[in-house]
Amino acid sequence: MSAEATNPATPGPVTPTAHRRKSRPRIDLRRLGRAALLGPAARDRLPDAISHVVEAHRAHHPDADLDPLRRAYVLAESSHRGQMRKSGEPYITHPLAVTLILAELGAETTTLTASLLHDTVEDTDVTLEQVGEEFGEEVRYLVDGVTKLEKVDYGAAAEPETFRKMLVATGNDVRVMSIKLADRLHNMRTLGVMRPEKQARIAKVTRDVLIPLAERLGVQALKTELEDLVFAILHPEAYEHTRELIVDNAARADDPLAEIADEVRAVLREAGLQAEVLIRPRHFVSVHRTSRKRGQLRGADFGRVLVLVNEDADCYGVLGELHTCLTPVVSEFKDFIAVPKFNLYQSLHTAVARPDGQVVEVLIRTHQMHKAAEAGVIALGNPYAPPSEEQADSDGERADPTRPGWLSRLLDWQEAAPDPDTFWSTLREDLAQDREITVFRPDGGTLGLPAGASCVDAAYAQYGDDAHACMGARVNGRLATLSTVLQDGDTVQLLMGQDASSEPSREWLEHAHTPAARIAIQRWLAAHPSPGEAPDEEIPAASPRPPVDGLTVRPTEANAVVDQPGATVRLAGCCTPVPPDTVTGFAVRGGVVTVHRVECSAVARMKGVGRTEVEVRWGDTTECRVTLVAESFGRPHLLADLTEAIALEDVAIVSATVEPPSQQRVRHTYTLQLPDAAHLPALMRAMRNVPGVYDVNRAQHQATAP
């Protein structure tokens, strides 16, 4: 069955959220299961087993029609009757728990109905046709979308196609992904009886793809708990140390957060501003990151003060009073109301200093902003319902808030990706991006791009394949090269050539940061090889490199050079391929095969001069060596902090170089040995989290002639 289980009595990674949910006891799933076994309720009343779901749903949607929930529960309970989870609980407890998670976040009735039924088509005799006849086409579509995701194995070979389907399903209706995330959260909560290696495998997939998707969909409540559960499984020692820090802090007699909260209440009360002031504890991973960043933690580091008001204008009123009556830390101020994050998040961030030197972070937002911050797209209700007047745009068409820029971009380039492996590696690179920027066009439109994007990326985001004719750009009114890295809020005017023979330059690949730009450029270069270009650099015959573990070489035509087990191969320095990159090879002098990523610009050049391509594939060994380039602002102890972040990811540093600072910016190049290639996105995220580091990328070197 699709859902994993464990015995609730077995110690497992369920404690990370306990410190922030003390006032609300966890639902007794065993009691719900016993209620389910008593059989369906009478048709004129709601079953007792879904009373918690109904209570949570009514809190957000007091006028909702509850009949679909009753009928969905009756069908799910009768269909799953006799099926048990590995913990011995009735299986119905799983869809109930998933539905409760969504109900607490404010999901609308259609989503909850589909959630109750999400395993019926896969695990019982219920058909999609029956679901459609009984509950309508919307519920049928959502159940079908979740079922398709569940049917695909999460093994290494299946992952690319799994997440391609997941992405398409998300793009068609984000509620499919909402159900999937809640389903994964409950399974992660109850993962304890699985074998350690299976726990680790599920946790890694959750870390690399599902958590970034939850971040991009704005569902912070799910994202933070998933992070803590993954942290407990993959880093048990660090998790236990963090837990001890939280427990020790809770036992302290003084609480600077509570004291500041009282001061804030007094200031706002005197100013006549109605506000709710709460203490918001940091989750485990946040505490861990803060301890790595600041070293010894003090009481104020374990949480933030949250101020909730009714109107947008009140947010700025609260900010003014706090900055007037308390000591603000001006450098900590951020306005995500005027410029929301790409995942619907809005809030004012500031910080105030206490007399003892402790700094307390303060978040200011409306109640509606808080709901959106916690639940993201789930808080939108039914995004496909007929729009109200204020939801329609000037043309009378509905604006779709569930298709943010990053999702539209992914949907566009996944169609252009030549194969699942290219899609998979590019997806993980894109999801590793921590933030998005917004740049403005002269016509008043905007482009959403990942941080670090260049004018090349802006050109392909705006014009698609027509960007091949781009000749230059103006950034904030001044002429700029296409390699210029854009900043949030820049205005970009792209200068397009009128000549139909205009073509992209190979050098653009060095500056292309987005999948759409890279794929479009590579596709053009592959279709327009330049004859006579020099092949990739070749190593001398007298100094062949040793074989690379984990790589199998197979000839596409007869050859005594490579048709041997353990043939000598070399990973090309121009593109530093690692598993699971799709790779190809070329025989070079000295009986060596040089291996490139298929999208490497050297591949097109070597094909263009008639070099024979050799088929290569990765073997079972996933250990790999990769070169990463970190771009940062200069500051004391930066090198030490970066190397510590790398070491904490269990990655060995083979070599490191630091270029002299230029305009207060420093470029670090690391050659690293990874025990598991799949850990590369997490390593890059950890390096980007080091203060002062603004970008980390795979090294791209220019291929030279022999």
Automatic annotation (TrEMBL):
<dbReference type="InterPro" id="IPR043519">
    <property type="entry name" value="NT_sf"/>
</dbReference>
<feature type="domain" description="HD">
    <location>
        <begin position="91"/>
        <end position="188"/>
    </location>
</feature>
<dbReference type="InterPro" id="IPR007685">
    <property type="entry name" value="RelA_SpoT"/>
</dbReference>
<keyword id="KW-0378">Hydrolase</keyword>
<feature type="domain" description="ACT">
    <location>
        <begin position="627"/>
        <end position="701"/>
    </location>
</feature>
<dbReference type="InterPro" id="IPR012675">
    <property type="entry name" value="Beta-grasp_dom_sf"/>
</dbReference>
<dbReference type="GO" id="GO:0005886">
    <property type="term" value="C:plasma membrane"/>
</dbReference>
<dbReference type="Pfam" id="PF13291">
    <property type="entry name" value="ACT_4"/>
</dbReference>
<feature type="region of interest" description="Disordered">
    <location>
        <begin position="529"/>
        <end position="548"/>
    </location>
</feature>
<dbReference type="Pfam" id="PF04607">
    <property type="entry name" value="RelA_SpoT"/>
</dbReference>
<comment type="pathway">
    <text>Purine metabolism.</text>
</comment>
<dbReference type="InterPro" id="IPR006674">
    <property type="entry name" value="HD_domain"/>
</dbReference>
<dbReference type="InterPro" id="IPR003607">
    <property type="entry name" value="HD/PDEase_dom"/>
</dbReference>
<dbReference type="InterPro" id="IPR004095">
    <property type="entry name" value="TGS"/>
</dbReference>
<dbReference type="Pfam" id="PF13328">
    <property type="entry name" value="HD_4"/>
</dbReference>
<comment type="similarity">
    <text>Belongs to the RelA/SpoT family.</text>
</comment>
<feature type="region of interest" description="Disordered">
    <location>
        <begin position="1"/>
        <end position="25"/>
    </location>
</feature>
<dbReference type="InterPro" id="IPR045865">
    <property type="entry name" value="ACT-like_dom_sf"/>
</dbReference>
<dbReference type="InterPro" id="IPR002912">
    <property type="entry name" value="ACT_dom"/>
</dbReference>
<dbReference type="GO" id="GO:0016787">
    <property type="term" value="F:hydrolase activity"/>
</dbReference>
<feature type="domain" description="TGS">
    <location>
        <begin position="435"/>
        <end position="496"/>
    </location>
</feature>
<dbReference type="InterPro" id="IPR012676">
    <property type="entry name" value="TGS-like"/>
</dbReference>
<dbReference type="Pfam" id="PF02824">
    <property type="entry name" value="TGS"/>
</dbReference>
<dbReference type="GO" id="GO:0015969">
    <property type="term" value="P:guanosine tetraphosphate metabolic process"/>
</dbReference>
<protein>
    <submittedName>
        <fullName>Bifunctional (P)ppGpp synthetase/guanosine-3',5'-bis(Diphosphate) 3'-pyrophosphohydrolase</fullName>
    </submittedName>
</protein>
<feature type="region of interest" description="Disordered">
    <location>
        <begin position="382"/>
        <end position="403"/>
    </location>
</feature>
